[in-house]
Amino acid sequence: MKKTIVPFIFVTIVLLSLTKIAKGQTPTAVSTDEAQVSSPSAIDEEEINTLKEKIATKVAELREKNNKAVGGSVTTVSTGALKIKGSDESNYEIKIDDALTKAYQIVNNQKKEIKIQDIKKGDYIIVTGDLNEKTITANFIYVDELYIVNSGSVSEVNKEDYYIKVLTGDKETFTLDIETFTKQQMLNIKTLKPEVVGFSKVKEGDRLHFVVKRTGTEREVNRFAAQKIFIIPQEYFIK
Amino acid sequence: MKRETTIAILFGIVLGGILAVFILMKNKETQLEKTKSISPSVTVTPKIVVNTVKEEKVLEVTQPKDGAIVRKNSVSIAGSVPKGAMVFITSPIKDLLLNADKEQFTADFPLAFGENSIEITAYSKNGQSKIQTKHIKVYHLDEQL
C-alpha cells in the first residue's frame, strides 16, 4: 500500500504543479501574443496620422507662403486666361482653371459668387494664387472697386466749378470735383484734431489728402469726383 | 693832458655808449609796433567740428507688409517716425491722426473686404521738415486654401 501511495502522491504533485504552471502561463502567453499583434498596428496608425497632419500643415504653410494677391485692371480676356495691368504698371497674366478657380464680386463689403465669364475688360480685379514672375495661377478672383488714395499740394481752387487741382509728390496733377457727397475735413492747427469744413476753406498752397473712386466713366485723365478730402492748412507749416 | 680831463673823456664815452644803446633799443621797439606782419602772429590749430545735429528719422512701416493678405477685418499698423511727428493714416474707410510721442507708432486700423489702399504720412512736429509718405495695399480676404 505504502509502495503505491508514494508514487501516486508524487505523480499527483507533479501533475498539479504542471497544471498550475500551465494555468499561470496561458493568459500571459495569449495576452503577449495579442499585444505583439495589436500594438504595432496602433503605433503605425498613430505615426501615420501624425505624419499626415505634418504633411497637411506643411502643404498649407507652403500654399499660404506662395499665395499672393495682385490687383489690376483687366486688359485682355481670353479662354482660360486674363491679362491685367497692376497698380505698379506691370502686366500680369492670369491662368484660370475652370474647375478650381472661383470668382466673386465684392459689393457692400460682401462677396457674391459670379461666373468667370462675367469678368470683362476694364474691370478692376484682385487675383490670389501662386505668383511666378508675372504669371499667377489663380485660386480666387474678386471683382472690386478701385480707390485711389493720394496727397499733394493744392495748385488751384476753382470756386465756380467746384474743383481743386492737386499736385502730388510724383508730379502728377489730379483734378478733384467736390460733390455733395464729398466728405471734407481740415486739421485744426491749435487742437491738432480734424474738423468738418466747407469748400471755401481750401486755399492754394494747402496740403490735401484725398480718396477717389475710379468708375471708368471719367471725363478727363486724372479727373475724379472726390470721395473725401482732408486738408492740412499751410499755416501748419509756417507756425 | 690832465688826469681829470682823461677821466671826464672816458666818463663821457661810457655815458654816450649807454645812451646810444638805449636809443637803439627804443627805436627797435617802436619799429616792431608799427610793422604789420603778413603771417599770423597767433598759431591757429585746426579743429574738427563734429556735427551734433541728429539726422531725422525716416518714416518706415514695419507692419503690415505691402500686399499682405489678412483674414481679420482690422490690422495693426506699426512703424517708426521722427519723434513727436504727427502721423496721418488714411484709407477709403478711415482717417486716423496720431501724435507719436516716441519714435515708434502703432495703431489698429479697420479694413474693408477686398483691397485696402492705405497712405501713411508723417508730418514733423514743427511742420518745417519734409513730409514723408508711404503707400501700402492690404487685402482683407476670407479665402480658405
Automatic annotation (TrEMBL), chain B:
Top-level taxonomic group: Bacteria
Record-annotated membrane-spanning stretches: 6-25
Keyword presence, Transmembrane helix: yes
Keyword Transmembrane helix attributed: yes
Classification via InterPro entries: Ig-like_fold
Keywords noted in UniProt: Membrane, Transmembrane, Transmembrane helix
Name by which UniProt lists this protein: Bacterial Ig domain-containing protein
Organism: Candidatus Roizmanbacteria bacterium CG09_land_8_20_14_0_10_41_9
